[in-house]
Amino acid sequence: MQARRREKSRAFWWTEWISEDLLEAYRVERVIHESATKYQRLAVLETAPFGLSLLLDGKMQSSLLDEHIYHETLVHPAMALHGDPRRVAVIGGGEGSALREVARWKTVEEAYMVDIDQEVVELSRKYLPQLSGSVYEDPRVRLVFEDGRKWLKSQNQGEFDVVIVDLTDPLEGGPSYLLYTEEFYKIVRSRLSEKGVFATQATSPVHNTLSFQSIKLTVSQVFARVSELVCFMISFSAPWGFVYGSARLGVGDLSAEAVEQVMRMAGVDGLRFYSGEVHRALLELTKHYTRLRQAPARIIRDSSPLFIK
Prior knowledge:
Layout: E1 4-8, E2 11-19, E3 22-36, E4 41-47, E5 51-56, E6 59-63, H1 67-82, E7 87-92, H2 97-102, E8 110-115, H3 118-127, E9 141-145, H4 148-154, E10 160-166, H5 182-191, E11 192-201, H6 209-220, E12 225-233, E13 238-246, H7 256-265, H8 276-292
Parallel strand pairs: 7-8, 7-10, 8-9, 10-11
Antiparallel strand pairs: 1-2, 2-3, 3-4, 4-5, 5-6, 11-13, 12-13
């Protein structure tokens, strides 16, 4: 289902399908930029409720109001699970915010961001520089414009301590749906070090229950320990899920004290949301959100991908 807009005086209303059963509308004060890249439609909007926002294929990706909640929850639990991450790869992450969070860890020696859509990266840097900050000037950063799956497959075995997958939702015809499959997760696992940790955005456990539970089930076919966190995203109008895979620990094994200690030792600072106390609070909220709705999950494979609308 495509987003629609409706004129109202100088501003207009943008509508977006959150799920098949939920339609959201919010006021747009100004269109900063609209274009079609080789892979998707991009819009930068000045919205009344969320501030400047990046949309891809009509769906909200990042707003200045709360993108830090999403990206800090995606990145830092995975980094803390490893404890001493040196080499990190972000697959996707076009606006640069996940890479920004990775770079907060002073232990990191090399951080790769691999995105298939160079225009998204360049337009985000031009119109939304707040999302990446100064991360592209960091000498540890390597920026690669390539299909993330093909690139990861070309890397050496056991090369990365953490792999962060920050993609658009699995939309039919979109650039990301084959990066939610069992075959892709096997590639990820083979490129992780012995203590390596994987993290991915996993859609909403409440509004996209089938996709969230299927992503978790699919990851569990590949990783020995699979766990999840859910935080509420104001600009998504939904609780949002993240799934983590590793060989040893899950996010529930981390105490508030352990999170604080490992981040302190790694020199992590400047966080606006995530902390040891928030980590434990998210674990309790996650139990509630994931119990609200259930769906008959299935394993996602290349031959039978899962799409959301």
